[in-house]
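re: that chain from earlier
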Amino acid sequence: MHYKNLLRISAGVLVITLISTVVFAQTENPEETIIRGQNDVRLMTIPISIFTARELEEKRAQEFLEAGYLAVKEDEDQQTILSIRSVSNTPLSLAILVQDDLGSGVNLHLKDLGRFIRELPDGSKVMVAYLRAGTIQIRQKFTTDLEKAAGSLRIVSGSGAAAPRNPYDGVIDALKRFDGIPHGRRAILLLSDGLDVSNGFADSSPSQSNDLNRAILKAQRRGVAIYSFYSSATYTETGNSILINNGQGSLKKISDETGGRAFFQGTFTPVSYAPFFRDLNMALNRQFALTFLSTHMKKGYHKLDVYSTNPAVKIEHPKGYYYRKQRF
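^ sequence. v structure.
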C-alpha cells in the first residue's frame, strides 16, 4: 500500500493514515507495539531522513520536497505505512563519544562541538564520554543542561596507551545508557578512526569485526542512529592506507546500517569540522519518524528497505532490526 506525500519541511507534523478497531499490547521496546487480532501484527517506528540529490550536492535544504510514493519492504515483503511525522524540532537524546587516542588536531574542534551541543533543540539530553583502552569514561551523564554537557568536553590524551582495541565496545556500552531514556529521537555522534584491531591488523576489515556487528544490532534494536566523524588515531596517523580504509569502511557500515551517516575528509583529521556539522545539521533537520505495520512475528533479524517512486529522492534509514518476541 502506497501513500503520496508532499513534505513541507517547515511543517511540524505530517500524519498519513491511522488504522482503526485494533487492540494494542505494549512491548518492552517503546517503538514496537503488538496488535492483537485474528493474526498478530506489529507496529514498528523507525527513524528516516529524506533528501533530494540536489540538496545533497548543494549542501542546502530546499523549502519543499516532493517525496512521491513512499514504500517499506521488510524481508522483501511490502508493508503498510501508517504515518510519517516530522521530528526535526523535537528534543534529541544524543551520546557524544570521543576516541581518546585521536590525534591532537581534534582538540582544535572542541569549540565547534560545544557550539553544536548548545544549539540542540530545547529539552534535548546529551551524554559525553571518551573511549579508552578497555573502558568508557563518562564525563557527563545524560542531561538537559546543554551548557553543562558542552563544558564537560576535554582535550583528548592523544596517547597510544589510551587506544581502545576497537571503538565498538564503547559504543555498545553507551547504547545501554539509552535504556533509561524515554523513547524518541536517539543518536550517537562518534568521533573515531573506526579501526578494530581486536583480531590483529591483518583482520581489521569491517567484515571481520564481531563487535562492530554487535553494535549495529544493538543500535537498531534501540532505534539509535549513529553518525560518525572520521579522525586519525594511533594506528591510522601513520598513513597506512589499508588501516585507514578499514577504519573508514567500518564507520560507514555502522552509520549506514543504523540510519545515520559517516563523514570523511581525506585520510587524516580534517582541518575544520564545520562542513561536517553543517551536513549533520541538515541530516537531523530532515529526520522523520515512519510507522508501519509489520507482518513478521518471528524473532530474529529483519531486513528493511524504504524507498520512493521519485528517483531524485534519497532516504537514509536503518537497514534492519532485531526482533525479540515478547510474552504476555
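Residues 87 and 208 are 35 Å apart (CA to CA).
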